[in-house]
Specification:
The complex is a heterodimer of chains A (about 375) and B (about 600). Chain A is of the alpha/beta class and about 375 residues long. Chain A is built from 15 helices and 17 strands. Classes of the chains: A alpha/beta (about 375), B alpha+beta (about 600).
Chain lengths: ~375, ~600
């Protein structure tokens, strides 16, 4: 029988209690919203997507934000139940939620688990008090630690985020935080280098990112340190124990279909051989095979395994070697920044930190 | 016809910024040439660029009627001339077509270098001169001192000098009375064979080529058969008229008058400035002396940023040349910049103006190379050649001697700045010829290589004298030079567009300067890029652009991909604006900035 195509569902909750100075995400700072009405809209949107995408099987759901842990667990349950009602799901479906450390940890995580969440991602961001403050986080170091212990005991699958390469951060301090984060038995760790984005509080205050060379050194140290502790780098900023890579996020990087629910949420779907970029609530823009191919390069090279050339062709319909600038590809390979096997194209360790440039070269 | 004694043809001459175009506005207004609602500032400066920069580039002419105090109505032909040294040629042409000059001197500033130069040009043309002391409305005007200075420095009698204000219009009538009274009427024989001077010509998109003429003898009429004597080409006059300053048709122009004709002439090239126009059935016996052809002194190459715009650039240059015969250009092929043109100009300002007009009037993005002067090369095999393009530099071992053009520069400056001016001239390899004082102003004369002044000399002069120094120069011949060609290598490859010729003593410093600038102008690449300056294979300066180490987005998930793709699109467009040298991409702006003259 025909195997239905897999799809991932992203649920965006663009609300936060406070704005973090490094964040340029779309979000509203509001506590007085009517959650039930918004959830009803989300349910409507899911039903509409069901109408145009009936033959799918859901492999992952991701509650992101914003601060999705502000959604009441019963509303989470309503969304998950509706998804399960609308589509079949894979046996090992991954249902993730991003949460901030907070003082309700004793009941909250269990409630989320009961609502259907099976993977919790905790936004720790720093493991020292001063930097938590600098990053505008409202939780204390002690709370972060308690929450880390709690999620590893409540959930079987879990992740934590840290932000590093903070201005003036030194490698030795960062190493201490890495040592600590590796002690909790997390299955997955995301480590993001701080970048000062436009339209953020940091940009307005003139905060400067860490010196480039220092950031490179810190990245390399981090990669080695995590590998030595059983976490391998599978994407630019993501480390996992084998088999615990985020299924949902791999969908983005591998060019799979996903729908986005919630203000400003994006999706990518393939319908009758045509590619569409979707934007909530229901805007569909068709993408040319070339545009889709560019996206596959942008996203796929972020993985340490790189791009599966057969998948590339299957998704966008173009042969990768026909699409990329072959002369530039050869030069980048000769320069040791890209490497190619019969099945894959991937960035080497030295090329990995230059991905934006590599993609630009390949596409021009 | 007007009685010749009731005609006055005169030019207005002045140092730049002494207010002659504004004064001309007041004269036109006074004589009712234009209603005040038709007046704009600097009406005779018709190009946008002239008004914006506040300078006159093309001489303009206007015919006015003035009812004088003696009760007679005089016909005045006024010619507004450029003040900048680059356009001396334009001035001398205008002066040849009239009998007198109004010398405008800013009463707050006094005599400046171009006041002198222009007065000498007027005297060379046997002009009578009426002096107008301008800007008397300003509290800092010092009429007595400036009069004394004019007598001392120029030797002009100022007893008839008129005090005027171009701003308020005060004294304009006195000035016109002085023009009528002291400037001579033209002479000419109405019944002699037609003899007219071709003062200027330009291309008008409606009328074709328009010729500005001064009738010396005889008349020019509509439908008259004329001959341009130097080419022997015959035409029939279609249209004949005067500028009031609007074009106004007349039936006939008489001896002594200034006006325009059109005659279905296709190309300005056929209208040699200074040519003699006569009747082809009854030609005059001999030609007028004419003018020396203009000489290009500064050369540079101009390339389109987008190589597909080569044809558009060629058309632009051709159109500009229609109105400005002093532009010279010929096709050039650069390894780095593709097809373009090697161009010659009257000076640096002229070059800048043409570059700006190409961008502004033709909407073309261009790259220009470092300006150069024309050197004389004497080869060991006895051949003599001219070199104005670094790309044409022969093997130095085949050159016996190189000579560079020299100028005599006259600088006037308040004495507190004299020390720094002398230092500047010495740095620029100048040798002092004269140093005199007029009150608290010094006048110094230096012999300086032209190559030293075509760069930033004028800017430097202005900046070290707080704007008070004025400057003029004339070409005086050639002197031996120790010239070298400096190559700039990007990633070990010489870039012809960045090569330049200069004196050996300055080669290292300028090579270092350009490498240093390029280091900041060329973005980092995925690999290390050496930048070098070399003279005949010997590296004299070196910089290195270190490779890029990190350019990766920390977070990139499903909601980021659209933004990332659009960013990629923009980056691709940015890349297309780059020039490729081997593997190195150089932004267009780097050429302009790297070759920018002056200090960092």
């Amino acid at each position: 029988m025909h195997q239905p195509q897999e799809i991932a569902i992203y649920i965006h909750w663009p609300f936060c209690k406070s704005k973090c100075p490094y964040c340029d995400f779309y979000k509203k700072i509001d506590c007085n919203i009517n959650q039930d009405i918004i959830i009803t809209e989300y349910i409507d949107a899911l039903r509409r997507y069901r109408q145009i995408l009936p033959e799918r099987i859901v492999k992952s759901v991701f509650f992101g934000g914003g601060t999705p842990s502000l959604i009441k667990p019963n509303n989470i349950a309503i969304v998950i139940d509706e998804i399960v009602r609308l589509w079949p799901i894979t046996e090992n479906i991954e249902i993730s939620l991003e949460a901030n450390p907070n003082t309700h940890y004793q009941t909250m995580f269990q409630d989320l688990k009961n609502a259907g969440i099976n993977r919790l991602s905790l936004g720790v961001q720093a493991l020292n008090e001063a930097d938590l403050h600098f990053l505008g986080r409202t939780h204390s170091l002690a709370t972060a630690r308690l929450c880390l212990r709690e999620i590893t005991s409540v959930f079987d699958n879990h992740s934590a985020d840290l932000i590093y390469a903070r201005p003036h951060q030194i490698t030795a301090d960062w190493k201490n935080e890495l040592e600590e984060i590796c002690t909790y038995g997390l299955k997955h760790i995301s480590l993001y280098q701080l970048t000062i984005e436009e339209n953020t509080v940091f940009a307005r205050k003139g905060v400067k990112s860490l010196d480039e060379e220092a950031a490179v050194q810190m990245y390399e140290m981090t990669r080695d340190f995590l590998a030595a502790n059983g976490y391998y780098l599978y994407e630019v900023s993501n480390f996992a124990q084998k088999g615990y890579e985020s299924k949902h996020n791999l969908t983005y990087w591998q060019g799979g279909d996903y729908i986005g629910i919630g203000p400003s949420a994006h999706g990518r779907i393939c319908l009758n051989g045509a590619h569409y970029a979707t934007e909530y609530p229901f805007i569909h823009t068709q993408l040319s095979p070339q545009e889709r191919a560019e996206e596959l390069l942008i996203m796929g090279l972020r993985l340490t395994n790189g791009i599966n050339k057969a998948d590339f062709k299957k998704i966008c319909g173009l042969d990768m070697h026909d699409f990329v600038n072959e002369q530039k590809l050869n030069f980048l390979k000769e320069s040791g920044l890209l490497a190619e096997t019969p099945t894959h194209l991937f960035a080497t360790r030295s090329g990995f930190l230059l991905l934006n440039q590599l993609v630009l070269e390949l596409c021009s | 016809m007007t009685d010749l004694s009731l005609i006055r043809n005169f030019a207005i001459i002045a140092h730049i910024d002494h207010g002659k175009s504004t004064l001309a506005d007041r004269i036109i207004e006074y004589c009712g040439g234009l209603q005040s609602r038709e007046m704009t500032e600097q009406v005779l400066d018709s190009m946008d660029i002239e008004r914006e920069r506040g300078i006159t580039i093309k001489a303009q002419t206007v015919r006015l009627e003035y009812k004088a105090q003696d009760g007679k109505t005089y016909l005045l032909n006024l010619i507004d001339t450029p003040g900048h040294v680059d356009f001396t040629y334009e001035v001398s042409r205008s002066l040849a077509s009239c009998e007198g000059s109004v010398l405008v001197v800013d009463a707050t500033q006094g005599v400046e270098a171009q006041t002198l130069a222009n007065v000498y040009l007027a005297l060379d043309n046997n002009h009578e001169i009426v002096t107008a002391l301008n800007k008397i409305d300003l509290p800092s005007a010092d009429v007595a001192r400036v009069k004394q200075q004019i007598e001392d420095v120029i030797g002009l009698d100022t007893s008839n000098a008129v005090e005027v204000s171009g701003k308020t219009g005060a004294g304009v009538e006195d000035l016109l009375e002085a023009v009528v009274k002291y400037l001579p009427a033209p002479t000419g024989e109405e019944n002699a064979p037609t003899k007219a001077l071709l003062i200027d010509s330009w291309y008008d998109s409606y009328l074709g080529v328009v010729i500005l003429v001064r009738i010396k003898d005889g008349t020019l009429r509509k439908k008259q058969n004329i001959r341009l004597m130097s080419t022997g080409l015959d035409y029939v006059i279609d249209k004949i008229g005067v500028f009031t300053p609007k074009m106004k048709d007349v039936d006939v122009l008489h001896a002594g008058e200034v006006g325009f004709i059109t005659a279905s002439i296709k190309s300005v090239d056929d209208c040699k400035i200074g040519d003699t126009i006569t009747d082809n059935r009854q030609p005059c016996a001999d030609m007028l002396a004419g003018f020396k052809p203009s000489v290009s002194v500064v050369f540079c190459s101009i390339f389109p940023v987008d190589s597909s715009q080569y044809d558009a650039l060629r058309d632009a240059l051709a159109k500009l040349k229609l109105n400005d015969a002093s532009i010279e250009y010929q096709p050039e092929n650069s390894g780095a910049l593709g097809l373009g043109f090697r161009c010659g100009f009257l000076g640096l300002l002229h070059m800048e103006i043409i570059q700006e007009r190409i961008g502004r009037e033709f909407d073309l993005d261009i790259i220009t190379t470092a300006p150069s002067v024309a050197y004389k090369l004497y080869m060991t095999n006895g051949v003599e050649m001219t070199l104005d393009n670094p790309a044409d530099m022969p093997d130095p071992s085949t050159i016996k001697l190189i000579e560079e053009p020299m100028v005599r520069a006259t600088i006037m400056v308040p004495d507190e700045y004299l020390g720094s001016i002398l230092k500047l001239c010495t740095e620029r390899r100048g040798t002092q010829e004269d140093l005199t004082y007029v009150g608290n102003r010094a006048m110094v004369v230096y012999k300086i290589p032209l190559s030293e002044i075509v760069f930033d000399f004028y800017d430097r002069l202005k900046s070290i004298s707080s704007g008070y120094a004025s400057f003029n120069y004339e070409l005086i011949g050639y002197a031996p030079a120790d010239l070298v060609k400096v190559q700039i290598l990007i990633n070990e490859e010489p870039v012809d567009a960045l090569a330049f010729l200069c004196n050996r003593t300055e080669a290292e410093a300028r090579g270092r300067q350009i490498c240093g600038r390029l280091k900041d102008l060329i973005p980092r690449h995925l690999f290390k890029i050496p930048l070098q300056a070399s003279i005949g294979g010997r590296i004299v300066a070196r910089e290195t652009i270190s490779p890029m180490r990190k350019d990766v987005t920390a977070k990139c998930y499903g909601g980021d991909v659209t933004r990332k793709r659009k960013l990629l699109d923009n980056q691709k467009k940015g890349k297309q604006r780059m020039r490729q040298f081997g593997k190195v991409e150089v932004p267009q702006s780097a050429f302009i900035e790297a070759l920018r003259i002056g200090d960092n």
